[in-house]
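User: Second chain of the day. Same drill as before.
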Amino acid sequence: MIRGHPHATARIVNTAATTTAAGPRSFKDVWLISTGHGLTHWYTATFYLLLPLIGKELGLSYTEIGLIMTTQHLVGAISNLPGGMFVDMVGKKGYLLAASLFWVGFPYALMSVTHNFWMLLVCVTLVGIGNNIWHPAAIPTLALRYPERKGLVLSFHGMGGNLGEAIAPLVVGVLLAWMSWRAVVVVNVVPGIVMAVMILIMLGAFSVTATRDETDAGSEDRSFRNYLRGFASLLKNRGLVLVSIGAAFRTMTQTGLLTFLPVYLAYELGYSPLLTGACLTVLQVAGFVAGPVAGYLSDTMGRKRIVMSSMVLTGVTILGMALAGRTVWFVVFVALVGFFLYALRPVLQAWAVECTPKHLAGSGVGLQFGITAIGASISPAIFGMIADAYDIYTGFLFLAGTIVCANLLIFFMPDGQQKRAAAVRVG
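Assistant: Same format as last time:
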């Protein structure tokens, strides 16, 4: 697509030259967007912790619990592609980030008035739609503003998510000692509203100036027909599709674990909400540490090497967790799973951005997250059915198998894909 627009090519080169001449960028935008990302994950982590309580109150089976998360992620899979297209065509990233953050938090407050399974599905459907504007707006903005440090800045973005998921279970676990889960979901909306206002104030003007020029570079003709023609080329992009499907299997592992680990701790081991929250915090703190390490190493050693080694170790540690049972080793393996599983996320995101033309960056992220959301929607339902048919330990073995499948796909990814993708974008 870029070869057909010589002026757009020159514009990309000039933008890159300007960025280089200006020297290292401030990380202010990284910290702000990463904090907002943390709150989008805060709400998700809160729901994972509340799900066992909701399940008991409403009398839900393992399969029904799995279907709740399947619905949320399936809606996300459907809305990711149009979400990415919408971000590319509108371009005002700051406004979109603020709107997304509000839309993610508000449906959780609506859960306070739900009294049956179907009302709960409506709420998680709304969450699934709102959550999928965030990533197509945030990830290209960060990756293309810091082209030489994609893995690192996206790891900071991922750290924000890990931090939100690490703090939320502890805070909510404490709140549940004094409040019902229905009161907690209402109180929980306040920090999201505050952060949405901050993003709107600090990034609103930014979205019209710097971000528009850099993330939409090459979009001289923004007609819908030309846009669709460019988007169709993404579906033929072997590197992007392979990385996205590999990321989908990784997300199957993550979603199944986050859905049923709290259920396992509450139902099988009899943990209190506070202890359950502490275990989830251990998982996320390990991921918080792993993200920057993996991001930096992938920038220097290559994406493929880091991804494959992390996937192998994730599968091994999930097996160890399932076998550890009630011993202290269970918590150790939970931490190791978090470390290796979350190390993969920023690396796969950076890899996908490198396989995508700049003017389609939002759509590329939307495509990747759409494919991963399909995996996320499948995993909880399958886990729930396996747990009902056999036992919950067999469900964890299923999760270990999903990460093995992810590794097999990445194995076929060419080592030189990143260099060829970079050459295509400026050729």
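The radius of gyration is 21 Å.

User: Great, on to the next one.
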